[in-house]
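Lecture 7, part 2: worked example. A protein chain together with zinc ion.
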Amino acid sequence: MSAWMNAAFVAACVLLSCATPGGPARDTCSPRIVVALDAEGRPTPEWLDAIRDRVDADELAAIAQTPKPLSTDEAAWRDLIGEGARGWCASIPRLTAPFRHVTPPRQPGILLGNQGGGDGFTREPDDVAIDLGEMSRAYANMPEAARRALIPRLLSHEYTHLLLHRWMDATGWSQESVADDPFLRALRTLFNEGIANYRSVDHERWVGAGGVLTQHARETLAALQPVMIERLQGLAAHPSAEDAARLLRNISQGPLERKWGAIPIALWLAEDTGGDPDRLAAWVEAQPGGILELAVRHADPQYSPGFARLLEHARARASRRH
Ligand SMILES: [Zn+2]
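Predicted complex, written out as structure tokens:
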């Protein structure tokens, strides 16, 4: 492992000198890549800290005691991520550009483990975390070329969350601040996961040159729009906790084709901005209360009036909070 880590550091930190915006203080990019397992394969305290909010206390204690050295496939993912870090490093200025009022991570890092995490998640404030066990399970049959193509999109998605979390915390949209209001939670998720998934759909399967949506993207939108409008209308009508949990299901979980909230927003962002960072910045600055304007502009005409009513409702609810 240490030999590999040395190799990763050479690859990611020494040979690379990726420019980042913001002047001389941040003129180099050197992602820290840490395989957070000890010599016996137990997770290190850094990994346990990263997964603390994702598992219950008993599970966390069990994971802490369980040696699980990397499998062959997990090690292959580790190596591919080490290589993919180069492209991600180079793309960081592009990823941060739409966040004009956010100070980005000073030293973004990649934390790798193999128990208790998700395929990609964040360890605040500066790290992207990846559970290699989840990668191995979720993408078991994926050919190597597709794995290589997936890695930069995954890293970019999670890095974008680091920026979004800073922005939402600074503008009154923290996770805690919307916890007791299902409709505001939904708006926050549309914003947070929609913009992060905009980086996930940066692929020829979804978006062509200039933000033109593919046939697959248009079919996915056609299937998800009625779900999105029905779920949001239900969430706006002060549902019980049980109904809210049902309505929020799959807003951003499961395969991309089923994420009824995140994927329409991501695809409409691609269509609306054509990749222009200033146009994306305007959506970031509109905050979760304004994100449904995308739906009003880009949804099928039959759904536009419904989305317009939801946007009005979102703006009224958001303004009452501030
Ligand atoms: Zn996400």
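The first strand starts at residue 32 and ends at 35. Residues 1-27 have pLDDT under 50 and may be disordered. Keep this in mind for problem set question 3.
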